[in-house]
Design brief:
The complex is a heterotrimer of chains A (554), B (191) and C (335).
Chain A (H helix, E strand, L loop, with lengths): L3 H12 L5 E5 L3 E6 L4 H11 L3 E9 L5 E8 L8 E8 L5 E3 L9 H10 L3 E3 L25 E3 L2 E3 L11 E5 L11 E7 L2 E8 L7 H5 L4 H9 L6 H16 L5 H29 L3 H22 L8 E2 L2 E2 L5 H27 L1 H7 L7 H7 L3 H5 L7 H4 L20 H28 L18 E8 L2 E8 L8 E5 L1 H5 L3 H5 L7 H7 L4 H4 L15 H12 L1
Helix pairs in contact in A: 1-2, 5-6, 6-7, 7-8, 7-14, 7-17, 8-9, 9-14
Chain B lengths: L1 H16 L26 E3 L9 H5 L5 E5 L3 E7 L8 H5 L5 E3 L17 E10 L6 E4 H14 L5 H11 L4 H6 L1 H4 L8
Antiparallel strand pairs in B: 1-4, 2-3, 3-5, 5-6
Chain C lengths: L7 H29 L14 H4 L6 H10 L11 H21 L14 H9 L1 H11 L4 H32 L4 H10 L3 H4 L1 H14 L11 H4 L9 H26 L10 H25 L5 H34 L2
Helix pairs in contact in C: 1-12, 1-13, 3-12, 4-5, 4-6, 4-12, 6-7, 7-10, 7-14, 8-12, 10-12, 10-14
The chains are: A alpha+beta (554), B alpha+beta (191), C mainly alpha (335).
Chain lengths: 554, 191, 335
């Protein structure tokens, strides 16, 4: 285990004169600038030797100065909140840099996304196909291996596997009862066994990262809430963590407790919802009904405390909007006590039912090495024995004041993920009860005045939170006005969805739903920008498409 | 194995007599399943007397659901409930507490978009400028601003302020500017 | 001996009554599984404020669903083999109709003299999975193909305990006519008490036949959309749903005839016998629904292995038990 000074010294040593600048902000985030030729070496050092994680690759458009590629490394296993942003400035006329996905496979999806949004090209990327845009759109990477071909007058995507196999192709999606939202798993299988799988997303793309760039910081909090239907509070918390870092303000204690209470109740809600969905995916409709019955009680707590079941809109810059009255605290404490007993009964049912075990054990095994390589986060990673939790490694709100444990399990299969989530419900109820007790004794203000954006202490900040599905990262770049310059979001499902093709291989079609369901995919979180196409025609010819694109961009 | 199934059977049999769903729409929500219905952010309701038509709700609305349109005689504040995200900022910022969010949440409609959508409106009469005849501000807003300024102003300036305010309310911004020396309301007069 | 029907009108009436009972049983499955899950299910008594629009009761809701399907347009995929696609539901319905009039209901059967009615019913009931496999395979949909494969595997799995169990009853009653089996039980005891092992095996096989959990594998919507029935819609789907309703009625009637003495408790007049038959039917269906609500779905290989373990062993045990009972009976009678 290297210390942070050693790590920095090692970087300085390796980069030498190529390390053009270095800075540190009060939240323990370092920023170094370097030349584009050294990015792979930095990745090799920070991931291979220091065991860090490359959590996101963002590209910020700096106008005439070019494009700034920022590699966000999270090293919070060394020190709390320790992050490094490695920046490379690319000239606007030649925005090319080498891809780091060979050193860090977890960055492959981030690079694909940035290739679609900006003109930056990541050379030698192993899979430069479109991530959000349809495969049939002309691929900017000129390679006959990836470009669509015209067959019988119709543009089709080339198969990513050889045509000589006997296996048949089944489309799981975009419309399929196993999915809650649109996604496409192109599964090749032989009899009932799956031999190959490919995932394509982008059906829920709404343009959110672009929308952020035209709304003030205050309105941004409400927009962040609507990225996901289940993890609203976490998105606002992460966004506000970033904005409050930019402003250099610290929210009062009572606000911290209220934010933690909301976040933990949301985690309870999300895991109960997941339990129902997982039950439905193995055909256990009764568990679905029973767990959603308990979930209704959490929603009632949200309704009485904040006024809305989902999208509670409690968090605002500088604190929270509404206080929790003592009467509500008492009611909530009673509710949580009752819920704890019901959840324990549900855990009993899931644990002791013979068929549930048969369906979940040994399904979709994710071993620790693959999890670390692919950058899994959240309960998916914790179920493979990796103690990864943003609440303990980069604490925010009141997580440092409450006593709680990170739940892990060594199994790595769908059963382990179920157990981790069920235990996390009980831990979350525990944390909520501690927060309620603290709120009973502690008074104080619930918010402080936000800072005018021209007086922001920093010009960019990283805000993290632990969503029910894993680590959520917001990277906000400000330009001194009250509207952010760029916002980049990396949701946990973005990482976990990339694991699905690997997990599906070797299992039967009957296991596919529960494998997909056990990593708790949230496609709304994953696709955050939408390109609405008005497709009255079924096939779009390449020339017509280019014309259409040029009309739209004028 | 049998033990787990037996426990589950017991749990299910308890549900035979006490379902948690209600015969909606014949019955509404029973009290024991909701902690409180008062807090819900539902449909808007303008208080006829308290709303002064200042339009602060329009400025702060997160989704552009509240619009202000002025005509010769009146200002109409319109809330398009279908565009609203029910964040509650309009209610929080209203200086007169004239906009409240009721607990009416059953707002879906079967009609198509456009004319059939639920809208909440508030009409306030506008005061006309005595110089040019154009509408200036709602009368109630003018009265409310007058009261607030006179309440909070330093007592030594109170008399001057109340005298000047009478002149201010009669004219629109442009007419005030052109007549400021004539009426002795120029801001530099106190130097 | 060639089967002769004693009364055509009686056979038609029996078919209609069978269908109607099937509708009631379907309703019961929906209502009880809902109530067990803390929800309500279709209304038995509609609340007063909604009676004008919905009527007084929704007891015949399964029938309304079928009628709605029957007047909708059937969309057939272009690449499907249309003739076979349209014939498959008709095959199922014909087999089921014939099986319905061969199975005695509350003691009445227009084929009372047919000595091989049990064998005929077993063969006819196999027409249903045949129709499913056929319909799924020609529907040119990948879901249909996978569903057909699963249906074929499941049939192999549950037919073994079913046939062994049913023939055990034939051995005990020494006849292959269902009417005579009922008569044999009236003079002694219902076979549920004499041979509970075979009863359990046949019960578990019936759960599989009806595609109820934990064996609703061919129609699992999260895995294969709707299995063999994915491409069926409108009128053709309505015919399949009629088939399902008839199937539940025939299976339950068969179970009652074979193991519960067909509802014919001696010395009770006719209307009471019919009532008892229906009551026993409801009891059997509630038990089936309890199993359906308690369990998730098996995977097809797990279901196959399970069927070869528990129900087959139970049915084999029942067979051995039946033979030893016969031996004991003759031994006791003759010294």
């Amino acid at each position: 285990m290297v210390s942070s000074e050693d790590m920095l010294a090692g970087l300085r040593e390796r980069l030498g004169p190529d390390l053009t600048s270095e800075s540190k902000d009060p939240k323990n985030t370092f920023t170094i600038n370097t030349r584009k030729e050294r990015v792979r070496e930095v990745a090799r050092y920070l991931i291979g030797e220091v065991q860090g994680r490359l959590i996101q690759v963002s590209v910020i458009d700096r106008g005439l100065d070019g494009y700034e590629v920022v590699y966000h490394y999270s090293l919070d296993h060394l020190e709390k909140n320790l992050h490094i942003n490695v920046k490379v400035l690319l000239p606007a006329d030649e925005p090319e840099v080498e891809s780091v996905s060979l050193e860090a496979p977890e960055s492959s999806w981030s690079e694909r996304e940035m290739m679609e949004f900006t003109p930056v090209r990541f050379i030698n990327h192993p899979d430069p196909r479109h991530l959000w845009l349809p495969h049939e759109w002309p691929n900017p990477v000129e390679s006959e291996k990836y470009n669509p071909v015209e067959r019988n007058g119709v543009l089709t995507t080339p198969a990513t596997y050889s045509k000589n196999s006997e296996a048949s192709l089944i489309p799981l999606g975009p419309y399929h009862p196993l999915l809650i939202e649109g996604a496409y798993f192109r599964v090749k299988f032989d009899g009932e066994e799956i031999t190959d799988a490919d995932v394509k997303l982008g059906w829920n793309h709404r343009g959110i990262m672009k929308l952020f760039e035209s709304r003030s910081y205050t309105r941004g909090a409400f927009l962040a809430e609507r990225v996901c239907g289940i993890c609203n509070v976490t998105h606002t918390t992460a966004y506000l963590n970033a904005v409050e870092s930019l402003s250099g303000i610290e929210i009062p204690d009572r606000a911290r407790y209220i934010r933690t209470l909301m976040a933990e109740l949301e985690r309870v809600h999300s895991h109960l919802l997941w339990l129902g969905v997982a039950g439905d995916l193995i055909g256990f409709k009764t568990l679905f009904m029973l767990s959603w019955k308990v979930r209704e009680q959490v929603l009632d707590v949200f309704e009485s405390v904040t006024g809305s079941r989902r999208a509670p809109a409690m968090n605002l810059i500088g604190g929270v909007r509404k206080d929790v009255s003592s009467e509500n605290i008492k009611k909530t404490e009673r509710r949580l006590g009752g819920m704890r007993r019901e959840v324990e009964r549900l855990v009993d049912i899931a644990y002791n039912h013979p068929v549930v075990r048969k369906r979940l054990q040994d399904i979709g095994r994710l071993n620790l090495a693959t999890a670390k390589n692919a950058g899994a986060v959240g309960p998916t990673a914790r179920a493979s024995g990796w103690k990864l939790d943003t609440r303990s490694s980069s604490p925010y709100a009141a997580y440092e004041y409450a006593t709680w444990d990170v739940v892990t399990d060594g199994g790595g299969d769908a059963w382990a993920r179920t157990i981790v989530r069920l235990k996390e419900i009980l831990v979350s109820i525990d944390i909520s009860t501690q927060c309620l007790e603290a709120l009973n004794h502690r008074g104080g203000p619930i918010s402080i005045e936000p800072v005018d954006p021209k007086d922001f202490k920093l010009s960019e900040a990283l805000g993290k939170a632990e969503a029910p599905r894993g680590e959520l990262v917001y990277y906000i770049v400000s330009d001194g006005t009250n509207i952010p310059h760029s916002v980049r979001i990396r949701t946990p499902s973005f990482r976990n969805n990339a694991l699905i093709p690997n997990l599906l291989k070797g299992h039967t079609l009957a296991d596919a739903p529960i494998i997909v369901g056990s990593i708790d995919p949230c496609y709304s979180c994953t696709d955050r920008t939408v390109i609405v196409q008005d497709s009255r025609r079924d096939t779009i010819w390449k020339t017509a498409l280019i014309d259409l694109a040029s009309v739209r961009s004028r | 194995m049998v033990d787990g199934l037996a426990k589950l059977t017991k749990e299910l049999l308890r549900g035979m007599l006490k379902p948690v769903t209600v015969n909606y729409p014949a019955e509404r929500l029973p009290d024991e399943f909701t902690l409180s219905l008062e807090e819900i952010r539902g449909k808007h309701r303008f208080d006829e007397d308290k709303c002064v038509g200042c339009g602060a709700c329009n400025v702060v609305c997160s989704s552009g659901a509240i619009t202000v349109s002025d005509s010769q005689d009146q200002r109409v504040l319109k809330v398009e409930v279908a565009r609203c995200i029910f964040c509650g900022r309009c209610r929080d910022i209203c200086p007169e507490k004239g906009l409240e969010l009721t607990s009416e949440f059953e707002l879906s409609q079967t009609g198509s978009r456009g004319g059939d959508c639920v809208k909440v409106e508030q009409k306030i009469s506008m005061r006309r400028c005595e110089g040019c005849g154009r509408p200036t501000f709602p009368t109630k807003q003018i009265d409310s601003v007058k009261t607030r300024v006179l309440d909070k102003i330093d007592p030594s300036s109170k008399e001057t302020a109340s005298r000047d305010l009478e002149v201010y309310v009669k004219y629109c911004l442009d007419c005030r500017r052109t007549r400021s020396y004539a009426f002795n309301i120029h801001p530099r007069k106190s130097y | 001996m060639t089967p002769t029907v004693t009364s055509f009108e009686g056979a038609l009436l029996l078919l209609l009554v069978s269908f109607f009972l099937g509708v009631l049983y379907s309703y019961e499955v929906r209502k009880i599984s809902a109530r067990l899950q803390y929800r309500r299910g279709p209304w038995l008594l509609v609340p007063k404020s909604l009676r004008k629009t919905l009527g007084t009761t929704r007891l015949l809701q399964p029938l309304y669903d079928i009628l709605k399907l029957l007047y909708k347009e059937s969309i057939i995929p272009e690449t499907a083999r249309t003739r076979l696609f349209k014939t498959a539901p008709l095959v199922a319905l014909t087999c089921l109709g014939a099986a319905a009039i061969l199975t005695p209901l509350a003691g009445y059967s227009p084929f009372a003299s047919f000595e091989l009615s049990l064998v005929a019913v077993l063969y006819l009931l196999l027409g249903v999975p045949l129709a499913f496999v056929l319909g799924g395979a020609v529907s040119s949909s990948p879901w249909g193909v996978v569903g057909s494969q699963r249906e074929a595997e499941l049939v192999l799995a549950y037919e073994t305990p079913f046939i062994i169990g049913v023939f055990t009853v034939a051995v005990m009653a020494d006849t292959l006519s269902i009417q005579s089996i009922v008569a044999a039980q009236i003079s002694r005891y219902p076979y549920l008490l004499l041979n509970p092992f075979s009863a359990a095996a046949v019960f578990l096989a019936i759960v599989g036949k009806l595609h109820l959990k934990p064996f609703d594998i061919p129609e699992a919507e999260v895995e294969v959309v709707a299995g063999p029935m994915t491409e069926y819609s409108g009128r053709l789907l309505g015919l399949i749903e009629i088939g399902k309703v008839l199937l539940i009625s025939i299976s339950v009637s068969l179970f009652i005839d074979l193991f519960l003495a067909g509802g014919m408790i001696p010395r009770l007049g006719y209307p009471l016998v019919a009532l008892i038959f229906i009551l026993e039917g409801f009891l059997v269906v509630s038990l089936i629904t309890l199993v359906h609500t308690l369990n998730p779905r098996f995977r097809i290989d797990q279901a196959f292995r399970w069927y070869l373990k528990v129900p087959t062993l139970l049915s084999a045990l029942g067979l051995v038990w039946a033979y030893s009972l016969r031996y004991l009976h003759t031994a006791i009678l003759w010294g």
